[in-house]
Write a structure and sequence with these properties.
single chain, 234 residues, alpha/beta, 4-stranded parallel beta sheet, 3-stranded parallel beta sheet, globular
Length: 234
């Protein structure tokens, strides 16, 4: 009998398209030849969780109670561990960990480890992320452990690409958000970044490796691969 597979719990809705994309990637990265070889995945897509950046920077509604309630739903449903397809939500990770008794994977720490292992020459990375992620220094702290500095990208362009009326969260996966993010990435390269981090899970919905002249690291892809490896015990 093979090793018992773990059940993946996705704490989603932050936003919904990123949740769908993570689910798709987990399925794609799973080495399966028939349906029955795929992983069991439990998703609670809760878009009613208050905006994380507004809470961190502007005194908006606290998302912690809804994050905790959603995580507990996944535990009750049988998840063995939880992944969260939202970078900014990791600001509240310590609160979540105190309330649930199953592991929660930290995609920011996993991203820093991935860069160190795959781009050992990198001394400086460029970060495209929301203002909440940047101001909370989540990536700065994670990369500092590996002796890597972080340059924050143009917040105005990045936030417009994500939150603007023609942004990704409004359902626009077209040229405008892609152009804004490409411009922000090129500015980071000019400032000395050696690797670009797509530090918001919506970014990879429009920005691809072909859009950037340096390696583009996508934490959502890393999270999906880590989830598969953990679930399969490999």
């Amino acid at each position: 009998m093979g090793k018992k597979r773990k059940i993946v719990g996705i704490l989603g809705g932050l936003g919904p398209m990123a949740t769908v994309d993570l689910f798709r990637r987990i399925v794609e990265f799973t080495p399966a030849k028939v349906d029955q070889e795929h992983l069991r995945i439990i998703i609670d897509c809760n878009p009613q969780i208050p905006d994380r950046t507004k809470a961190i920077l502007y005194g908006g509604p606290d998302p912690t109670p809804e994050l905790i309630a959603t995580a507990k739903n996944l535990v009750k449903a049988g998840a063995d561990f939880i992944v969260i397809p939202c970078n900014t939500a990791h600001y509240f990770l310590d609160y979540l960990k105190r309330e649930v008794d199953i592991p929660i994977i930290n995609l920011i720490e996993e991203t820093a480890r991935y860069v160190r292992n795959n781009y050992p020459y990198a001394e400086c990375v460029g970060l495209l992320a929301t203002s909440g992620t940047i101001k909370s220094n989540l990536y700065h702290k994670a990369f500092k452990k590996f002796g890597i500095s972080v340059l924050a990208g143009d917040e105005k362009k990045t936030m417009e690409a994500i939150y603007g009326e023609e942004g990704i969260k409004a359902g626009n996966l077209g040229e405008k958000p892609r152009r804004l993010l490409k411009e922000a990435a090129q500015e980071l390269i000019r400032r000395g970044a050696q690797v670009i981090i797509a530090g918001c899970t919506e970014i990879s919905l429009v920005l691809g490796e072909e859009d950037v002249s340096l390696p583009l690291v996508d934490p959502l892809t890393i999270l999906a691969k880590v989830a598969v490896e953990l679930a399969l015990g490999i």
